[in-house]
Specification:
Number of strands of chain B: 4
Oligomer: heterodimer
Structural class of chain B: mainly alpha
CATH architecture of chain B: Orthogonal Bundle
Helix content of chain B: over 70%
Helix content of chain A: 40-55%
Order of helices and strands of chain A: HEHEHEHEEEEHEHEHEHEEHHHEEEEE
Strand order of the largest sheet of chain A: 9-8-10-11-12-16-17
CATH superfamily of the largest domain in chain A: Response regulator
Largest sheet of chain A: 7 strands, mixed
Shape of chain A: globular
Largest interface: A-B, 39 and 43 residues
CATH class of chain B: Mainly Alpha
Distance between the termini of chain A: 52 Å
Number of domains of chain A: 2
Shape of chain B: globular
CATH topology of the largest domain in chain A: Rossmann fold
Number of strands of chain A: 17
Order of helices and strands of chain B: HHHHEEEHHHHEHHH
Radius of gyration of chain A: 22 Å
């Protein structure tokens, strides 16, 4: 009863807000957009050259509070580190503003307005997918270049995500898309038969992220002859008791349990499997990232959990070591997760593209947008989360995922 | 031979629902109101127990006692501040107030303790024993045992003590009880105190079984327990017990044998059928409306 009440209130509120916001946006862009834009640009440029020595303004929003705060905080910290490093080199100068959207599409739209008022020229879009899908149309309409570190849903880059068509063109992704994660996981499991041969999947069927990965996993598993012996679901109202799903997976003889879900329910699944004495290999995707930093979680339960991620903090290349040290120093010894690495790469990719295209702080955001889109679709970028990454004109990234396994409470890269 | 373990898991889940449902049903029986903030009292109880265990390092029984104490006081305070001034108001006003209190507690918890979830420490040993071919965790057994003990104590309290008789009198006829010299306001406060104390016990069991503590954790179990109370006949204490257990078992069996996607639809479908056949719930009293 209360749930219904809440939902209807939320719907009513969001309708009001959406109406109010589209009303503002509509009148602004149709009636007097050009002179207004020019005026603010001129003012901004004057202001910048006067006091800060012309910095390119990078905006972005993410969940700095709320249940997904681990992601937003990681992105904010890592982006700050990258901006400091870029600025320290001389040359290009960046200024960063990360707003809080609490993983809420409505708040993300508000945050977008705040960032635009601030004079954002380039954007890190949003950290999570649902808010990203809500603001991407605005980025496209206002022609501000955006690259999301971790908004992995196709809805972030496509206006019509079901058919993967209608790409916004100026919104890019640093992380894998959800469909890629599903098929890459199936490929990995089929290539590593030592992990197990019978797969059970437990996914959240009211969540696009989870369902999207599940669908492509199952499709790819059929092609690669990976045997899926059980598929169980849960949703928001049932996200506590997993005894049935685990029990049936066990009965079906599953030795791998694939969890394309976020770390919160995953922590409950690991706990309950442990209580039951069921010990399969758990296999997660990027949503599993963060489980080790969950307050009060017994990390020994996550021992031996595999996850497919483009970044592992224990890699020994110079880039990773430097980044991990800088992050630890900034965040009191905390080890950066994949979201942090994605954000760090985003800032460096923007820097590389800005340098190549000769972007300067006095250019307007749509001028920068055109130049950066051209750069991103033609350049290759090597960073923490992959070598020689490229982007297609839809904004999707091509890079190879890496499997890590949790050992003694840290991620350890698995050699192929 | 998974049937037995599903049954026991269902009983475990149902026991938690039953203890929460007791809070709904007692308050409804005596104050004739739906206390929708009850689920959020459970949330507060979980946080109190969590902090007592982790921040203050109290031993488990003391942590449970602290949670019970805080929740009892909270329940009584909520009743005094939010519901008592509305004693003569239409029941809809009280219902809306209860929803308001629920939001107040949820948002208060978000401000005080942030909305990121915390993992409840596993105090009760995580082991399991084998019954036949089924393996059952100690926690589930403890939950079922606690529920039975709570039920027995509560039934004895209501039927054998003076306060219990006064409560029964109030639920029959408030006006007449007042004329017989019963302090109705005090009885209502006691009811809230007991209901909230039970909520604290439920919160510890809930958080131990599903160790994720966050500000909205109480709402879903609260709704399910309310359903259980209606199922068993709202206002009836044994009804809440039976309703909770049946709801838990149906939920687990529906997931296990029909579909994990449809389990809630099945639970509520059964509820509709029961209410069509027996509008006052399984053990509800028949209400004679005098014209």
């Amino acid at each position: 009863m209360r749930k219904i009440f809440k939902t209807s209130m939320a719907v009513a509120l969001s309708v009001c807000m959406a109406a109010a916001l589209t009303a503002c946006g509509g009148s602004g862009s149709s009636a007097s957009s050009e002179p207004a834009a020019e005026a603010t640009e001129a003012a901004d440029a004057a202001e910048e050259t006067a006091d800060t020595g012309a910095k390119i303004k990078i905006g972005g929003s993410g969940p700095l509070t709320g249940p997904a705060a681990v992601y937003g905080q990681a992105v904010k910290n890592a982006a700050e580190i990258a901006v400091e490093e870029v600025n320290a080199k001389g040359g290009l100068q960046f200024e960063l503003d990360m707003e809080d959207d609490a993983h809420d599409p409505e708040k993300a739209v508000t945050a977008y307005g705040v960032l635009k008022d601030w004079g954002m020229q380039v954007s890190l879009a949003t950290v999570t997918s649902a808010p990203g899908a809500a603001v991407s149309p605005s980025y496209a309409e206002d022609q501000i270049f955006a690259i999301t570190p971790s908004g992995s849903s196709p809805a972030v880059v496509f206006a019509d995500p079901d058919n993967l068509s209608g790409a916004y063109g100026n919104v890019f992704q640093m992380c894998f898309t959800d469909p890629n994660q599903g098929s890459a996981s199936a490929d990995y499991i089929s290539a590593h038969t030592d992990l197990g041969s019978k797969v059970a999947i437990i996914y959240k069927n009211d969540d696009n992220y989870s369902k999207g990965i599940h669908d492509t996993f199952v499709a790819e598993a059929a092609v690669k002859n990976v045997e899926v012996v059980y598929e169980g679901t849960f949703d928001d109202s049932n996200a506590q008791d997993f005894s049935v799903q685990l029990g049936q997976a066990q009965d079906a003889g599953a030795d791998i349990v694939f969890l394309p879900i976020y770390y919160d329910p995953a922590s409950l699944i690991l706990t309950q499997a442990n209580q039951m004495g069921y010990k399969p290999t758990f296999f997660g995707v990027d949503g599993m990232d963060g489980i080790l930093t969950l307050e009060g979680f017994d990390t020994s339960l996550a021992e031996g959990v595999y996850l497919l991620t483009p970044f592992s903090a224990d890699a020994e290349d110079e880039l990773t070591v430097n980044f991990v040290n800088a992050y630890k120093e900034k965040c009191g010894g905390e080890i950066p997760n994949q979201f942090a690495a994605d954000a760090y790469d985003c800032v460096y990719a923007i820097a590389q593209a800005c340098e190549a295209a000769g972007v300067t702080a006095d250019m307007s955001s749509d001028e920068i947008c055109a130049k950066l889109v051209e750069q991103f679709t033609s350049m290759t970028f090597s960073g923490l989360t992959g070598e020689s990454m490229t982007w297609n004109e839809n904004g999707e990234v091509t890079k190879s995922p890496k499997a890590v396994v949790i050992q003694n409470g840290v991620y350890v890269g698995v050699e192929d | 031979m998974q049937f037995l373990s599903y049954l026991i898991n269902g009983l475990g889940l149902g026991s938690v629902y039953a203890i929460i449902a007791l809070g709904y049903t007692m308050v409804y029986g005596i104050a004739k109101m739906l206390n929708f903030a009850h689920g959020d009292v459970i949330m507060v109880g979980s946080y109190i127990a969590f902090f007592a265990l982790t921040k203050f390092g109290l031993p488990f029984p003391l942590a449970v006692l602290t949670a019970i104490l805080v929740c009892t006081v909270l329940g009584v305070v909520i009743e005094r501040l939010a519901y008592k001034p509305l004693r003569q108001a239409p029941s809809l006003a009280v219902l809306i107030t209860a929803i308001g209190v629920s939001y107040f507690l949820q948002n208060g918890a978000q401000i005080l303790w942030s909305s990121s979830s915390k993992v409840f420490p596993s105090v009760i040993s995580a082991g399991s024993i084998s019954i036949g071919a089924a393996s059952v965790s100690y926690l589930t057994l403890l939950t079922i045992a606690t529920c039975i003990v709570v039920m027995i104590c509560l039934t004895l309290f209501i039927n054998k003590t003076k306060t219990g008789s006064a409560m029964r009198a109030c639920s029959e006829d408030k006006g007449a009880s007042m004329l017989m010299g019963i302090n109705v306001n005090q009885i209502i406060s006691i009811t809230f105190a007991i209901g909230s104390g039970l909520a604290a016990i439920a919160s510890v069991l809930l958080a131990s079984t599903y160790p994720s503590v966050y500000p909205t954790m109480g709402s879903m179990p609260g709704i399910k327990a309310f359903t259980a109370a209606v199922f068993g006949g709202i206002g009836s204490v044994p009804g809440a017990f039976v309703g909770g257990l049946i709801l838990g078992i149906i939920e687990i069996f529906a997931k296990a044998y029909i579909s994990t996607q449809l389990s809630d639809a099945i639970v509520f479908g059964v509820l509709i059928v029961i209410l069509l056949i027996k509008p006052t719930g399984l053990l509800g009293k028949k209400i004679n409306v005098k014209v």
